[in-house]
């Protein structure tokens, strides 16, 4: 007896396309909420590492398994003491506000007024001060060679003011437990922990690990060797401090690739199959 094969009716394109768009939008929102988020650079405080208009990918899960370390570039929510760098235009029309909201949902909108991106200089227990006899920043009494990322430093001849970041000089600051001391790479224009205070670790959104836009700026954001061999902070036993057990930050992308690869290629794989194979057979 010959079995009769019934072919499932294929969904018309005008019905299938909106469904695929809804699924893609939901996946983008999930990825943005839990795994990765793209951030737009609105100011020059991180030049020349990051330029205005660059977009970076931020790993939002890496700090669920470890704390930030010195030298990493992080995105965080500023406290009430932090003045906003990205002030929203109050005259935006409805269409512009709607497109910005949708962009934020899928992770491609502009950062909020209290979202900042800086480099971690000190972790809990570190003693940060400036300057030594050569005008260099010191961490736990050791001067840093910041030539690999520092763009333009603040002037030495401006008197220090705890309410302003115009001067390079400031007295020793001990990073409080559960907080980070962060600074921009363009110190001349950066408003950072020197005058606005340290950042709670719980406010960190994630680690910026790669520049993805524009295309000619594609590059990673590795931890520089500047912080190798620093004396341990008072909050960290020497046996577990850098440099012996530094997390391998070059592998942060591994955390998200196993999830992203199937999502990126699943729909393409299905669409590339012959029509006869895509139909379900009953």
Key terms:
282 residues; 2 domains; 4-stranded antiparallel sheet; 12 strands
Please, could you describe this protein's structure?
With about 280 residues, the chain is of the alpha+beta class. It has two domains: about 1-35 and about 255-280, no CATH class; about 35-105 and about 110-255, Umud Fragment, subunit A (Ribbon), CATH 2.10.109.10. It is built from five helices and twelve strands. Residues about 240-250 and about 255-280 have low confidence and may be disordered.
Topology overview:
Layout: H1 13-34, E1 36-40, E2 55-59, E3 73-77, H2 94-106, E4 115-122, E5 127-130, E6 137-139, E7 142-143, E8 170-174, E9 179-183, H3 193-196, E10 199-200, E11 204-213, E12 219-220, H4 257-272, H5 275-278
Class from secondary-structure proportions: alpha+beta
Low-confidence stretches: 238-251, 253-282
The CATH superfamily of the largest domain bears the name Umud Fragment, subunit A
DSSP summary, beta strand count: 12
* CATH-defined architecture of the largest domain: Ribbon
The end-to-end distance, rounded to whole angstroms, is 16 Å
State the order of secondary-structure elements, H for helix, E for strand. HEEEHEEEEEEHEEEHH
Radius of gyration: 24 Å
CATH topology category name of the largest domain: Umud Fragment, subunit A
Helix content percent band: 10-25%
Basic shape:
elongated
SS summary, helix count: 5
Q: Return the average pLDDT rounded to an integer.
A: 76
Number of domains: 2
């Amino acid at each position: 007896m010959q079995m009769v094969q019934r072919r499932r009716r294929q969904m018309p394109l005008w019905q299938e396309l909106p469904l695929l768009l809804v699924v893609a939008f939901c996946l983008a929102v999930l990825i943005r909420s839990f795994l990765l988020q793209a951030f737009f650079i609105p100011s020059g405080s991180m030049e020349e590492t990051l330029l205005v208009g660059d977009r970076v990918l931020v790993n939002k899960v890496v700090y669920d398994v470890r704390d930030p370390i010195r030298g990493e570039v992080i995105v965080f929510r500023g406290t009430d003491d932090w003045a906003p760098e990205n002030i929203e235009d109050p005259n935006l029309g409805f269409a512009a506000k709607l497109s910005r909201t949708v962009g934020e949902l899928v992770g491609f909108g502009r950062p909020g007024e209290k979202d900042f991106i800086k480099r971690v200089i000190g972790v809990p227990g570190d003693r940060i001060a400036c300057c030594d006899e050569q005008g260099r920043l010191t961490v736990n009494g050791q001067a840093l060679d910041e030539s690999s990322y520092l763009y333009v430093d603040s002037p030495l001849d401006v008197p220090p003011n705890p309410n302003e970041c115009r001067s390079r000089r400031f007295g020793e600051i001990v990073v409080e437990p559960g907080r980070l001391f962060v600074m921009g790479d363009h110190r001349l224009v950066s408003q950072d922990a020197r005058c606005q205070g340290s950042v709670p670790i719980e406010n960190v959104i994630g680690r910026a690990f790669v520049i993805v836009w524009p295309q000619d700026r594609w590059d990673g954001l590795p931890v520089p060797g500047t912080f190798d061999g620093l004396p341990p902070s008072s909050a960290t036993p020497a046996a577990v401090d850098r440099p012996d057990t530094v997390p391998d930050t070059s592998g942060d992308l591994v955390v998200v690739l196993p999830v992203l690869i199937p999502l990126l290629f699943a729909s393409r794989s299905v669409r590339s199959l012959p029509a006869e194979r895509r139909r379900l057979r009953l």
